[in-house]
Design a protein that fits this description.
Blueprint (H helix, E strand, L loop, with lengths): L1 H11 L28 E5 L3 E6 L4 E7 L6 E7 L7 E9 L13 E2 L2 E10 L2 E9 L1 H4 L3 E8 L2 E7 L4 H16 L15 E8 L3 E6 L3 E7 L8 E8 L5 E11 L17 E12 L2 E9 L5 E9 L9 E9 L2 E9 L5 E7 L5 E6 L2 E7 L7 E7 L6 E15 L3 E2 L7 E4 L3 E7 L2 E7 L15 E7 L27
Antiparallel strand pairs: 1-4, 2-3, 3-15, 4-14, 5-11, 5-15, 6-15, 7-8, 7-14, 8-9, 9-10, 11-12, 12-13, 16-21, 16-25, 17-18, 17-24, 18-19, 19-20, 21-22, 22-23, 24-30, 25-26, 25-29, 27-30, 28-29
């Protein structure tokens, strides 16, 4: 039984000038307050276009067809400038996320674009996203362009590059053969969905696409205040259209006008623990997590990363999320190296989770778990030579709906250990992860490789659970083997 759970676990962890829109017939409104991982927006839309803020500001849909003019469309812009250091994670999805065949997954028709713009000032602004413009791109491509230190630049790249195609083929082959996907293997990359990360300081900005492709860093002409972020979609000529969604939007740090919301009803699952994050070196953390066996997870804890521009190398509350094997993260607020209580509660009906810190709600996360749930505590290191010492006490887990009886977690916990980090149970509900990181391949760190010690437990199934287990999550969300990573 334990060895089976280990196999499941390994499958889990594994800008506004030249490109601006000539908006006509503009309407604008102020979005309601956001949850703690996003921020509020103002929107604008040309005739024939709409900009919709959805799902507690975690999703922006931009759609329409150009009626006249050149590059008309819709946009959503942050109502406030961001902090001088930060990270923005989002997914850009075309064709409303339908699981269509390669080459058939459109972001629009005719000449169109869908980009994230980061505006610092007139001499330093940057755009990244999708462009399809006649002989410029010969179909939809990833575009990175803007103005850096007063100089225009542009780069055009394939939606899915050759290395990613090889990786996709490897994942599919392994799934078809029943072979476990390596935990260090990158996620399956689809041409209609891309994760975009913008990471900035007062001196530069870096973009990362699909967790692997890096563009920049681009250095500014001087020290900058925080940027304004705009999500935009547009068509170039009358009749050209676009329909895109920016989703799973996360702004790291403390943003103005944000609030945490508590979903209605009772949560389906939760994990809580007192934890302490200690260690030495570039990076180390301690966190708790809920996850499934189809590449989705929600995590919260304390992380110290000497190289993180958001934190200045100090301990901060850290949120992590995976959806279909795609990872993003959020730094919420400063913390320290003392004991703190964390709790993650997840509502099955909406997919929203609430993160609690010392008895107060501090953030929301959206994650769509499917099938059986797992719970774990984990400590990670960033590089070879880092020392990790993560403590967990009074760990509690819960799953199930009271109306149908508890479908909770096994009392058993099993360790998973990599690269010199060891996990152990020190008391009935207490755990510890300790070790010095070693053996990580050259060029890799915790952004690309699981460098962790963890303890994991798993949800009862109906046939071996307690009481009336009609609330157990047992159904797969997809028959696509690429989702099983």
């Amino acid at each position: 039984m334990i060895s089976t759970q280990k196999r499941f676990y390994l499958r889990v962890i594994a800008g506004l000038f030249a490109f601006a829109m000539a908006l006509t017939g503009v309407t604008a409104w102020q979005a309601p307050l956001a949850h703690a991982s996003t921020t509020s927006y103002w929107t604008a839309a040309s005739n024939g276009w709409s900009a919709r803020i959805q799902d507690h500001n975690a999703q922006v849909n931009l759609a329409g067809k150009s009626q006249d003019g050149l590059w008309s469309g819709a946009q959503a812009t942050t109502a406030y400038q961001m902090s001088r250091r930060g990270t923005l994670n989002l997914q850009l999805v075309g064709n409303n996320g339908q699981n269509c065949q390669p080459g058939m997954c459109t972001y629009g028709t005719g000449d169109h674009k869908a980009v994230l713009q980061m505006m610092f000032d007139g001499a330093n602004w940057y755009e990244i996203g999708i462009l399809s413009e006649g002989y410029v791109t010969y179909g939809p491509q990833i575009i990175v362009r803007g103005m850096n230190r007063g100089q225009m630049f542009q780069g055009i790249y394939p939606l899915v590059d050759y290395n990613q195609q090889l990786n996709n083929a490897s994942i599919i082959q392994k799934m078809q053969n029943g072979t476990a996907v390596d935990i260090d293997q990158q996620h399956y990359v689809r041409d209609y969905r891309h994760i975009i990360k913008a990471q900035w300081s007062s001196k530069s900005i870096l973009f990362i696409v699909d967790n692997t492709r890096r563009y920049g860093p681009y250095y500014f002409s001087g020290s900058m205040n925080g940027p304004a972020a705009t999500m935009m979609a547009a068509g170039k000529n009358p009749g050209d259209s676009a329909n895109v969604t920016f989703t799973n939007i996360n702004f790291s740090g403390i943003n103005k006008g944000t609030q945490v919301f508590i979903p209605e009803g009772k949560p389906y699952a939760s994990i809580s623990a007192n934890l302490m994050n200690n260690g030495a070196g570039r990076g180390f953390n301690a966190y708790i997590r809920l996850h499934d066996e189809y590449g989705s997870a929600a995590a919260a804890g304390i992380q110290t990363d000497r190289g993180a521009p958001e934190t200045g190398g100090n301990p901060w509350i850290f949120l992590g999320r995976m959806e279909d094997g795609i990872f993003d993260y959020d730094y919420v607020k400063p913390s320290d190296w003392s004991w703190h209580n964390f709790r993650i509660e997840w509502w099955a009906n909406s997919g929203w989770a609430v993160v609690w810190y010392d008895g107060r709600p501090i953030a929301n996360l959206k994650v769509n778990f499917r099938g059986r749930l797992y719970a774990s505590v984990e400590g990670d290191g960033a590089n070879n030579g880092d020392y990790v010492h993560a403590f967990f006490s009074n760990v509690e887990t819960q799953a199930g709906n009271a109306s149908v009886g508890d479908c909770g977690f096994y009392p058993e916990w099993t360790p998973t250990e990599t690269y010199g980090l060891h996990a152990k149970r020190t008391a009935n509900r207490d755990f510890e992860v300790e070790g010095i990181v070693g053996g990580v391949p050259a060029g890799r760190d915790w952004d690309t490789t699981l460098i962790a010690g963890s303890m994991i437990t798993w949800q009862f199934l109906p046939e071996n659970g307690q009481g009336n287990n009609g609330g157990c999550m047992t159904n797969s969300w997809s028959t696509d083997p690429a989702h099983r990573i």
